[in-house]
Specification:
single chain, Muramoyl-pentapeptide Carboxypeptidase, domain 2, 235 residues, Arc Repressor Mutant, subunit A, four-stranded antiparallel sheet, ArsR-like_HTH, ArsR family transcriptional regulator, alpha+beta, WH_DNA-bd_sf, two-stranded antiparallel ribbon
């Protein structure tokens, strides 16, 4: 059964229900809200259900003052309204613009990326070191989660094509800062999982539809590997 008054006016009416609760000195029930706003109680109930689900309104049972059933009442959830437009891109642009004024903005961005890459990557137990194939797979998984749509280059195992950039508009304007940050993410991730490879270079917009990541072996010596394994066993 369709609810009454299901029209394009849902959002203004839902906002009116919320504003009525915010303007009331006491909790309100469905009947009170319907009378105050001049709309059907089922319409009020529909919007209240949505507002409760969004975390904007709290619902509770109010103990009766005399004989009778407890009354269901509603109050606005305390705290700032979480509705409205977000401006995260503007925030990112402000931060990138500020970072770009650094004497060595690329290095600073790469270092920031390294720390976050180590935090975001799926970790491996310290007693085990991945081979190049597993390290590449884990790197691809991370970049997929971040929205880069990576795909191995069929012609060379040491290259990965990034088909998308989740920060494309910012990268077009701040590539000298944002791209080193992306390179740092990959380097930090590979370093965290003790990979035998590293990301040596990121070519922004190397192809019309992709950036290119270059990978290379870290060329660990046998002595270095044995020392690392002894350290892992002792920790």
């Amino acid at each position: 059964m369709n609810r009454p008054d299901q029209t394009a006016d849902d959002q203004p009416r839902r906002q009116a229900v919320l504003e009525a609760l915010r303007g009331s000195d006491a909790p309100l029930g469905i009947t009170e809200l319907a009378e105050q706003l001049g709309i059907h109680p089922n319409t009020v109930r529909f919007h209240l259900d949505a507002l409760v689900a969004q975390g904007l309104v709290d619902r509770r049972l109010e103990a009766p003052t005399g004989r009778g059933r407890p009354r269901t009442v509603h109050t606005p959830h305390p705290g700032m309204d979480r509705g409205g437009q977000r401006q995260y891109q503007l925030l990112a642009k402000i931060l990138l613009a500020q970072l770009s004024t650094s004497p060595d903005a690329g290095s600073a961005a790469e270092a920031a990326g390294r720390s976050w890459g180590g935090y975001l990557v799926e970790h491996i137990p310290p007693s085990r070191e991945p081979d190049a194939l597993e390290a590449t797979r884990r790197l691809n998984a991370l970049m997929t989660d971040l929205g880069f749509a990576p795909e191995p280059d069929g012609s060379a195992a040491e290259r990965i094509r990034l088909r998308r950039c989740p920060f494309l508009e910012l990268a077009e304007e701040y590539s000298s800062t944002l791209c080193p940050l992306h390179l740092g993410l990959m380097r930090g991730a590979l370093n965290e999982i003790r990979a035998p490879i590293t990301a040596t270079r990121l070519e922004p917009f190397a192809e019309p539809d992709a950036c290119i990541v270059h990978l290379a072996s870290t060329h660990k010596s046998g002595a270095d590997t044995r020392d690392r394994r002894r350290h892992n066993r002792s920790t």
